Amino acid sequence: MDLRKIVGTQPLIMVGACVLVFNEERHLLLQKRTDTLDWGTIGGSLEPGESLEEAAHRELYEEAGLRARSLRFIALLSGKDMYYKYPHGDEIYNVTAVYEADGVEGVPCVNDEESSELRYFSLEEPIPGLNPSIEVILRKSGYIRKW
What we know:
The structure is a single chain. This protein has a single domain (2-140), classed as Alpha-Beta Complex (Nucleoside Triphosphate Pyrophosphohydrolase). The chain is an alpha+beta fold. The mean pLDDT is 94. The protein contains 3 helices and 8 strands; from the N terminus they run αββββαββββα. The strands form 2 sheets. Strands 1, 4, 5, 6 and 7 form a 5-stranded mixed beta sheet that branches. Strands 3-2-8 form a 3-stranded antiparallel beta sheet, with no helix packed on it.
């Protein structure tokens, strides 16, 4: 936020992690975001001194109240198709480490102000209201191919 006061809405490179959590039916857990009002994965930006995997574990707990025994690294995504413009005008180019959670413990619950709802979705058909950048992540990571 301090940097945004200096650069305004100009594009920044944001480094972070997202965590893909699947239930027994291989449905993906998504959060209804309060900032963009669409569905997104669990995840967020690195904090100073934090590793990508540490950020993934932290975000999983902060946003969904879940802990994972381990995280399996899937992909590191970057480039022009990882551009996103928030509704309020901030622009970013994401560098995102994608992880799949293994041995998930707990019951998904909204655990912070970043989301209003958590729900599992099948990846067999398009997800209404899916954040476009999340669709890019799921496609580039090989999780959706049909739609």
